[in-house]
């Protein structure tokens, strides 16, 4: 037996994304954002997307390109503070935005990846974030039902990958990537290094390749990946 | 029967082989067959079983056998291991059975008053693998059918079994109950029907033999 | 004020410092002070902030500043990062505030109609850290008190704030509302009380100054 | 700033365990079982324990010593198949046993470690494992409430650790250890190698030390850790 090969071109992988799809996108700020996959999705042009991402990057970076091209109708996120363009679109009603507490967004995605229906949490009770949420009385406490989130497609960025789709991240580029890499029907990974089977130590793999559908090698990194000079 | 069951594995699949007979299916696969074997204690990419002399004390499968890795194997914790199962990444599991119902119900973990060691990981494999097939002897040691109209033992999962491989036959389980697909050499369809505790649909065409 | 707040960190603590003023607390700690700094984007063991020339493009804190590691730092995903917060492993967080209520309520994420970028990780820090202290100017830019009987803005978390550090004073928040603990040099207790939008308990003893 | 030192002797760490405590114990079969911590708990003698562990090891191994010494009144587990002694004690009513589906036990422990109230799952619906469980109707489906599990103490085994308590596991000795290492008020780790700060690569740490209270170095490994010859 040998493990199947899932290496793919970026264009072929992204071409599967349909209008109306729900798309998870990794990253927290610059680190871990799959800038190259996002640019390919802009070129591909699928519309009416629901995007799930921690943040909206910054103007003219990352998913801001998808916002500017009008491909996004709904955004499930935690914080838009660095992207005034996203806030403007939200305030103008051109995109619908659902805000989650950051760790709850992480857990909802993880629950989707773990095949659970949801989680029970007390986060946000007594604040407007709890409004409208289903409440379950359990063991004398009221807990909020936080539904699992899954997506049609997840776009993730890894530092290193092998051809089976095993992924390893570095530093704070990990963030939402390992969670989203479990939580979509089609998981597409871009990797700075795409290596042969066995090149990643079995103990140091962050995302087992079994969760990944397509893995694509990045060439030279675009300037979006670079250190931001403010 | 094990060799026949091995043909159930298709290229590219992620597969979990239950303890016992199913584990032996790997011996019938070509060396370069593209498949990913999963064991629920935290490994994708199971390599050959090792003797005690060759074994790594930290590397077992869920049945306790000392196994090895292949290029590209990954280790992970028990939560991730079942996340994979429950979220639909397991294409196929092969399990043993005490009883299979004509409605696809599976009972393979408990015999009240006699055997109740706990359900382990079987319930999630049976309920969540995309395809569940059973490998079992056609009858129990006393000669009673294991394939029944309805299971009498506590269920592992409802309506989960798609196909059964026994020493006598290959049988599909669907809307219409049990349907004979293949028979073992030297076994006739009517012999299979006699050893089955529920109606068995027998196609009028000549069935393959294995 | 920042130097005074730094004394809130005790040896062995796990601490999350919010964006802005709280981040500057680290500049007032001795080099060998035994503490673990956490940032919610996935790092325990934050080292010094780096310039753009020295920066690792993959290594930032939750505020986007380029930081570094220390011996023993660990990276992890966002689920683990907030698992740590929610399960009680965060001893202390220092946050900014728009308003603090005399009942300990905190509002620091939204001004309806003006500012609503999303709650980020603040709600879990405020609700689940074992001790929540606030660093803020005593009044807003228009001179209105930030310490009020009740918050008027949407809450981040209820009854979470234990202590407030401002440019004028250190104030504890407890059953009896606000209690003055220390004052800044050249600031009198009555000046603090005047700038506070709720009753301020002033002990009869001489208070320390910072 | 430097990270605090949590290195400890095994005896001092185990001495904190009180009668009536709930104790999680890592391991799945031999790999990952903290045999040395278990032996110290036998010597310490705390009684009326609730033990949470995937399995009961085998006769005269691991937690079977705690069962034989009568220190365990309740066992939350998934499978006792390799320990006839545990099954005998269960059938004789000398210990109470709660069986969980294996992945659900893992998720309940993880939920405890993640500060959640519980998870919602459809595992076991239609079987006797669902009996008596609270049901929540959500999004047109019935889901079972699986309460989070936390313990007073967790005993875990790591291959390598540093003095802050960062842990790394090898091979299938990972199993329940990283989950339990997040889910107890007092987490005690035994490590085959206890290394200086910085010896573990920050990207390859499985359990961040922030979750760990005490870490103890193992000397020569006892025969319980060895390959079992059947």
From TrEMBL, chains A, D:
Ranges in coiled-coil conformation: none
Molecular function terms, GO-annotated: CoA-transferase activity
SUPFAM superfamilies the UniProt entry points to: NagB/RpiA/CoA transferase-like (SSF100950)
UniProt superkingdom: Bacteria
Name of one Pfam family that matches: CoA_trans
InterPro entries: 3-oxoacid_CoA-transf_A, CoA_trans_fam_I, CoA_transf_BS, NagB/RpiA_transferase-like
Keywords, comma-separated and alphabetical: Transferase
KW Secreted (keyword) present: no
Keyword Transferase found: yes
Similarity comment: Belongs to the 3-oxoacid CoA-transferase subunit A family.
PANTHER family: ACETATE COA-TRANSFERASE SUBUNIT ALPHA, KETOACID-COENZYME A TRANSFERASE
Protein name, as recorded: Acetate CoA/acetoacetate CoA-transferase alpha subunit
Automatic annotation (TrEMBL), chains B, C:
Coiled-coil residue spans: none
One family name in Pfam for this protein: CoA_trans
Keywords tagged on the record: Transferase
SUPFAM superfamilies: NagB/RpiA/CoA transferase-like
GO molecular function terms attached to this record: CoA-transferase activity
Family per similarity comment: Belongs to the 3-oxoacid CoA-transferase subunit B family.
The protein, known as: 3-oxoacid CoA-transferase subunit B
Organism: Yoonia sediminilitoris
Organismal lineage: Bacteria, Pseudomonadati, Pseudomonadota, Alphaproteobacteria, Rhodobacterales
